[in-house]
Structure formats: structure tokens, C-alpha cells
Amino acid sequence: MVEDLEEAQLDLEEVKVLLQQLGLDRKLITEQSAICILALADGRERDGLLQGKKHLRDGARIHDIMTFARQDCGKEVAENTRESYRKSSLRPLCEEGLVIRHQLSTNDPKTFYRLHPDILRLMTCPAPLERRWLAQELASRLSQGEGWRQQQRKAEVPVEVGQAQPFFLSPGAHSRLTAEVVEHYASRFMIKPRVVYLGDTRHKDGYQNRDLMRELNLPIQVTANLPDVILLCEAERRLVVVEVVASSGPISASRMAQLDQLVLQPQALGYRLRYVTAFPNRRILRRFIEEIAWGTDVWVASEPEGVIRFGTEDDRQTTWPSR
To answer: Which of 301, 291, 313 is nearest to 229 (CA)?
Structure first.
């Protein structure tokens, strides 16, 4: 993460000027919209955010943005203005492509918002002249109309992988569910999880932490049989292998046999295994319930607090996921 001293420190009026330079509708250039943008650019470490989030820019709920307005901007914001923030500012900012909404369902209580990476770069750029140039470039793209906005709404999916910048997966339901596995499953059921590998439908090699893969003696070039996600819990010396099922492909008995071959070397080094199939909701889970292998876990993103264990007699000595 870039240190605060190396980033721009803008106030609300400066943010409104930037929104004007981007060519947004005058009705959207309000103090409330500026507060949303300023909050979602904030990189200071905070408590009380969603699990796994340390900074507002990592993902902020409307509640977090309103708290920022009170504590950081000195604004008197009533709790009943939540809908105004959502409808009058965040929704149109999402429609314009400046903000990305992360939401599993219509009433998802853990819905959060992020700035589009280009807007975050604009907001944190320390050099005024470079910031003006970036604003002009983005304004030119915005002026291209609905096609650009549709492109922004289909923006790549950011995933925090423990580096200064997130890794971006190609757009789509599969990538969104992959991000949920990293940000919600791992943060709930693993101690200080590390991302070893992420598969991607567009980028052949996906994300690979090659240092960890070498340490685990995992094959680096073999991509045909790799799962969607590989996570590492060093505290428990446990490797978590995840298949993401947006439409097909749970960890069946035959698939588990393939994965067993992949992780032979980490097992030889003393790492324990956990196989997990991630589903977006129960409806998709029901379609594949008969294919799921015994001895594996199932995690449903729409109900992230629990894990379903398809246990066997050998599981009597197995440690359940840590919370």
C-alpha cells in the first residue's frame, strides 16, 4: 500500500472540482457524492470495517461512508439519510462507472463499494499536473457515452492477494465468486490466509505466488489440472484447495483424485489438506449435491458464516475450520 504521505490529500471542494472536470452531470456533483468518493479513496487503517477490510478503499459499506462523513469531514449525518447516500450518490456513481458495487444479492447486508481503479489512481495521485492530465484522460473516456459506462460496469474483479495492488480477474460470475472465497471464506475460516494461486478464465497463468509455490513444491507450469483457488494457512500448515462453481465443476470423487496428485509434494512436506467447493447460493448447490465427494467441504457465499462438511469416519480426528 502506498503511504499516505505519498498520496494526495484532497478536501471535499477539490473532489467536486475533479468530478466537474470528469464531465459528470451537475446534479451528481454534490457534497454527498464528494464524501462518498473521498471515503472510498481513504487509505488509513481503521477498526470496525467488514471482516478482512483494514481501509475504506478496500471496501466500504454505506454505514462506513456515513461514519467517515461524521468523523473525518465533520458533517452531521442522520442515520435515516442512508437511502439518500445509496440512491442519490452511490447508485449514479456506479452507473457512471466511477464506483464498483460488490453485492451477492439484493438485500445482502455485507454489500460494499470500491472506487474503480482508475478513479482511485486519480484520487491518490500526489502531483497536481499529473492529476489534471489523468482527469482529462478519464473525461475523454466518459464522453464516449454509454459504451464506456457499460465497459466500466463490466470492469475486472479486484482480489486482494497480499500485495500493494490487488490482482484483477476477468469479468464474470466465476471471478466474483473467486473474490468472495478469498475475501470472505478465507478471512472467516483461516488464520492469516495467504493466496498461493488464483485461476482466471482470460489470463492463462492466473495469479501465482511463485515463492510460495516453490516453498510448497507445487508445480508451477502445469495449469491443466490446477483448481480455481489455492490458499495457505502457515499457522496450521494447511493447504486449502478450492473449486469455484458458478455453473459447473464441484470437487467430485474423480476430481479429488486428480487434485490429490497435484498436492503430493506439499503433503510429503507435512502440509494437511482441505478441499472446498464454493457455490454462490443453495440453488446452484442443489444442482450438484450428488456429485460432491465425501471428505470435502462446501461453502455457500450467500450464507458465508457456515461450512458444510461431507464427513467420513476418517474425519473424527480432523480439526474443523478455525474462525
So the answer is: 301
